[in-house]
Amino acid sequence: MILRLDPKNPRLAELGRFVINGLVATAIHYAVLTFNLKVIGIPSAGVANFIAAWFGIAASFIGSRFFVFRRSEAPWLKQALRFLALYASIACLHGLLLFAWTDTFQLNYTTGFALATVLQTVLSYLGNKLMVFSAP
What we know:
The protein has 4 helices and no strands. The protein is mainly α.
């Protein structure tokens, strides 16, 4: 299946909305991560990232429900529980990856964050599309 670069293609439009929503959620996540490390002074990038992830998750859910997948008519609680299960798994993976990258291997947290975010993006789109915001 190849997506044509036709702006009227609904799959391409959805993917574009997903990217926009993801950029906003990632910016929130990264801002809170940086705040946790630089302002609050949390000594572990893994812990700071785990906390920050929940801010990005909240932004992502709101954007996904109303903007990306446009499934606001579906039961809110059912979507929220599925979303939380998906994102709890992704947040744990993201946190573990950043912990290993930064705390164990002493590598730059920004690079580790970027790599973990690429994996998070793929898992997020597939999980949301197939499990959270799919038609009943």
